[in-house]
Every structure is written in structure tokens, then in C-alpha cells.
Amino acid sequence: MISINFVVMIERNVNLKSFNTFGIAANASRFSRFSSVEELRSLLSEVGEDKLLILGGGSNVLFTEDFDGIVLRNEITGIEVIQESDTEILVKSGSGEVWHEFVMSCVDNDYGGIENLSLIPGSVGASPMQNIGAYGVEVKDVFESLEAFHIKTGEVHTFYNKSCEFGYRESVFKRKFKDQYIITSVTYRLTKQHEINVSYGAIESELVKMEIDNPTIKDISNAVIAIRSSKLPDPSKIGNAGSFFKNPVVDPELVEKIKESYENVPNYPAPDGKVKLAAGWLIDQAGWKGKTLGSYGVHKLQALVLVNYSDCTGANILDLSSDIIADIHEKFGITLEREVNII
Ligand code: FAD
Ligand code: EPU
Fold this sequence. Notes:
Layout: E1 11-15, E2 27-34, H1 37-47, E3 51-55, E4 61-62, E5 67-74, E6 79-84, E7 88-94, H2 99-108, E8 133-134, E9 137-138, E10 143-150, E11 156-160, E12 181-191, H3 201-209, H4 217-231, E13 239-243, E14 249-250, H5 252-261, E15 267-269, E16 275-277, H6 279-285, E17 292-293, E18 296-298, E19 305-308, H7 314-332, E20 341-342
Parallel strand pairs: 2-5, 3-5, 4-20
Antiparallel strand pairs: 1-2, 6-7, 7-12, 8-9, 10-11, 10-12, 13-19, 14-16, 15-16, 17-18, 18-19
The protein binds flavin-adenine dinucleotide and uridine-diphosphate-2(N-acetylglucosaminyl) butyric acid.
Uridine-diphosphate-2(N-acetylglucosaminyl) butyric acid (EPU) binds next to strand 13 and helix 6.
């Protein structure tokens, strides 16, 4: 095997403000980028015993202090069709591609299955990390496989759907293989004959508003973009990382108890007879929606989203999230779990 050594550029003391959508001004002691597996391999040989963080779009992280280690920004690009039949198509993408741009290129080529996941920020490589989901679809529904670089051995391993152990905002990469792999490519099984998914009520009402009876995947994508733009803050204007907490999955008895005081509590069936509640609704009912503490707070249109209006610290946001967790526990007997990765 021929081994190629790249000249690696490592910057020191880099402000990460523009590399995370919360806009938190934490410093990384070392910072670099990679755009191929070979470049990544060369970089890792320089890392030594340093703490390592792989960053995609930085849209699901909260820096609570300076990062005393090396941050590697993933910029592996390239999209290719690797297999095709009359009904399906396998599309492989470099993990550093921007997720929404990837979705748009699939929709424009009439490859279906990910249109409901339009406008989610971040990179392709992070999409399996927490099995991103929105508007009735999760990545696991279209996921074929991924290639991941094993940090300790330098081997590249392939993971298929089952071995990723996907769950609601969960995968094996957040659990037993946490910090062990760097995802370098992801392959999705997309459709040429589409099954439109309008199971999420808001999509149907948006299509009515748009006066569309027989939606194409482009229409679904447009509807999702319109819904998201109407209630989620644009990170280029207001710092945030989307939903800060997961929606809690609870026992049905607890839901019945909450219904005694709140007849219309939104609730959805979950696996194993459990029930999923809307954390945004709970936080809203507890009076936190729109609450502002100086330069940060709870978004005024979506209580599940914590926001940095200008120059707060990650510790400010973390403390706010702890106060919310304590309050929701006291009021509803539910312990909210953070969705965002705390660094
Ligand atoms: P980063 O924030 O860069 O990283 C997240 C984690 O994954 C980190 O631990 C990082 O180390 C790790 N990681 C990243 N790339 C790799 C890789 N290649 N290999 C190994 N580890 C890696 N999420 C949803 O599921 N549904 C939504 O509807 C949604 N809406 C959002 C709306 C807004 C406005 C925002 C700001 C966020 C939203 N999110 C949503 C969260 C976020 O967009 C996703 O979690 C996204 O997949 C994160 O991608 P990223 O590249 O920014 O990851
Ligand atoms: N609600 C309120 N007040 C609020 C927010 C929500 O009452 O301030 C109620 C809504 O009226 C609705 C219910 O809560 O009845 C659910 O709200 P919404 O449809 O906005 O979805 P969500 O549960 O808050 C989840 C995901 C989002 C995803 C949307 C659409 C989680 C943690 N969040 O939000 O994902 O885009 O559904 O599918 O599962 C993310 O992960 O970052 C994210 C944005």
C-alpha cells in the first residue's frame, strides 16, 4: 500500500464563534480541517494524546468553555450515484457536504425520501449521529450505510442500518462507540417512485395554504421550508442549536395525570406502549417561552429552542437549561434530557 503524507496546517488558539451556530466565542487550542480520508489520517498522526473534537456545521454543540485540544473541521465533499434501478437509487455523499444542499440536490434530481428533512442545518456526516428527524421522517428511514474511520486503528469500517442502532435522536455513535469513529461518507437509499409523507399535520395545512392537491417532493420540501422558517430562528441571525432538549417519552399513566389539569396536552404514541410528549409545550406551559435574560433566553416562537441574541457564554445557556430542567421536573414530574452535545 502506498501511503501519502499531506502537509498538515494546524492553527493555534482559534476562536470558534463562526464554527458553531450558537455563536459562542470559545477558543480551541489547535484547529485544522480535512477534506479527504488521507488528509484526516495525516492529521491524526499529529494529534498525539490531545483531546479531539470533530466538527461539521457546529449546529448541535454548545461550547461551555475553551476547548483544550484539537478541533478538526470536516470538509470531505463529493456526491455520487452508486447504484440505480427503475424504482430506487443509492446516493453516496462525502460527510462534509452541507445537509440541506445535499437534500436540495436530491430533490432537484427527483430522488425522494429526504424532502421532509429540508432545511436542517449541519453536515451529511452528522445526520446518522443523532438520526436526525423532522416532519414524520428520520434518517434511519432512508439510511443504507456509512463509512467511518476508526480513530485508534486507522481502519475504515462500514456500518449498515441495523448496526447503527438508530433510535429517537440516538445511534451507536452517541452511545457505545462515542468518540471512537469519524464518519467519512454516508449512503442513502432514495426513491424514484415516491411515497409522499404528509403524516405530520402541519405539512397538510401548509399544502392547503399553498393550494396544492397532488404534491411533488419539491412541494413537500417547500412546505417544510415554509413551516420551519415561520417558527425556528435562523442561526445566521440568532444563535441557536435547534431543539435544546429531546421530547420526553413517558408512561401513559403520567399523561393521564397531566390531562387532569391540561386536557389538550399534545401527545404521540411511542414504542413499547409509551407516549411522547412535546418538551416545547411543557416549557411553554411552565412560562419560559420568550423569557430573556440579558443577551440570551428562550425563543419567543418555539420554547424548545434556547437562543444567544449576541454575546452570551455557553455556561449561560447551560445554566438556563438546568433551571428549565429543574422547573419542568417540579411542575410535571418529568426530567428533560438535553439533545445538544455539551462540550
Ligand atoms: P456538529 O454540531 O458539528 O456535531 C454534532 C456532534 O456530532 C458532535 O458531537 C460532533 O463531534 C459529531 N460529529 C459531527 N460530524 C461528525 C463526523 N463526521 N464523524 C463523527 N462525529 C461527528 N436536528 C434534527 O434532528 N431535526 C431538526 O429538525 C433539527 N432542526 C434544527 C434547526 C436549527 C435551527 C438548528 C440550529 C439545528 C437543528 N437540528 C435539528 C440539530 C442539527 O442541525 C443536527 O443535529 C445536525 O445533524 C448537526 O450537524 P452538524 O454537522 O452541525 O454537527
Ligand atoms: N408547542 C407549544 N409551544 C412551543 C413549542 C411547541 O405548545 O413553544 C407544541 C406545538 O403546538 C405542538 C407540539 O408542541 O403541539 C410540537 O411542536 P412542533 O411541531 O414544533 O415540534 P417539536 O416537538 O417542538 C420536534 C423536533 C424538531 C423537529 C420538529 C418537526 C425534537 C426534540 N424536536 O420539535 O427537531 O424539527 O419536531 O418534526 O424532537 C431539533 O431536533 O433540533 C429539531 C428542531
